[in-house]
């Protein structure tokens, strides 16, 4: 590649590199809106409360469980049962981080201050991504430790040093991060909070029955659904029986998550480069 041909590519790259001022501005915006705190509070309450209730119920009813139920018992799965709903709150956080500016018209002032839209988008994505990753990890580790504390009375708990446990906990936090960024991408693409949240709900939950309908043709559609990807990466043991046909391998699950992340961020970047 010649030096001349590499110059346009370098210019495109620079247009997506946010400066400190842009990053600081986006951080102030994110922590200044009430929806940020409400989303995080909802996710925390749902994830922690449901996880504690599920694991405490397991501990209380362990003596009366059947042998089959005991064999299928998953201490991690019950600790993270609240993330099924908590993920929506993280996704909504991503949506509102960008769609709110379009709803209020503030985006025009943002682009007036920083005409390079790529830098604005990159700064927003970086701030939202870092915040969601940190909060997601805090949430899953908190859910894990509280859940295991409930199970410890019956000696059913697992520890981070046990095989596969740390991977599962980290994967749960990573999943929340990806869902947040999918919501962020949807917010940039649709520029309408309600529409983007509806699309997010469809991706998280409503796509599941569609995948079931297509199972008689191929299990691949089910295996790349977010619902089943989450199931795959939050297990220490592989699924068994017919439901296992819908659960992707770890390799497919992680590569699908990466594809979701790249596609939605790329589509959002393309959309934000259009007319505001």
From TrEMBL:
Protein name: ABC transporter permease
Record has Transmembrane helix as a keyword: yes
Signal peptide boundaries: none
Organism of this sequence: Actinoallomurus vinaceus
UniProt-listed Pfam families: ABC2_membrane_4
Keywords: Membrane, Transmembrane, Transmembrane helix
TM stretches of this protein: 37-56, 80-100, 121-145, 165-186, 193-211, 252-270
UniProt key word Transmembrane helix: yes
């Amino acid at each position: 590649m010649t030096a001349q041909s590499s110059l346009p590519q370098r210019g495109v790259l620079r247009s997506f590199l946010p400066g400190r001022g842009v990053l600081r501005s986006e951080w102030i915006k994110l922590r200044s809106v009430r929806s940020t705190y409400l989303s995080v509070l909802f996710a925390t309450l749902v994830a922690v409360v449901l996880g504690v209730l599920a694991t405490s119920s397991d501990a209380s009813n362990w003596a009366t469980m059947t042998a089959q139920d005991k064999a299928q018992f998953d201490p991690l799965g019950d600790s993270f049962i609240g993330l099924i709903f908590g993920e929506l709150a993280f996704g909504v956080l991503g949506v509102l981080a960008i769609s709110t500016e379009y709803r209020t018209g503030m985006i025009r002032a943002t682009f007036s201050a920083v005409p390079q839209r790529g830098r604005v988008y990159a700064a927003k994505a970086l701030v939202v991504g870092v915040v969601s990753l940190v909060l997601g990890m805090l949430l899953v580790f908190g859910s894990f430790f509280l859940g295991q504390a409930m199970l410890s009375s019956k000696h059913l708990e697992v520890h981070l040093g046990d095989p596969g446990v740390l991977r599962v906990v980290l994967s749960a936090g990573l999943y929340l991060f990806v869902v947040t960024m999918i919501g962020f991408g949807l917010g940039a693409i649709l520029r309408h909070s309600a529409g983007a949240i509806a699309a997010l709900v469809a991706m998280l939950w409503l796509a599941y029955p569609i995948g079931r309908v297509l199972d008689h043709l191929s299990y691949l559609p089910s295996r790349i659904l977010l619902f089943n990807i989450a199931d795959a990466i939050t297990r220490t043991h592989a699924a068994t029986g017919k439901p296992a046909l819908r659960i992707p391998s770890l390799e497919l699950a992680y590569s699908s998550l990466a594809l979701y992340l790249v596609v939605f961020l790329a589509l959002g970047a393309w959309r934000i480069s259009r007319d505001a």
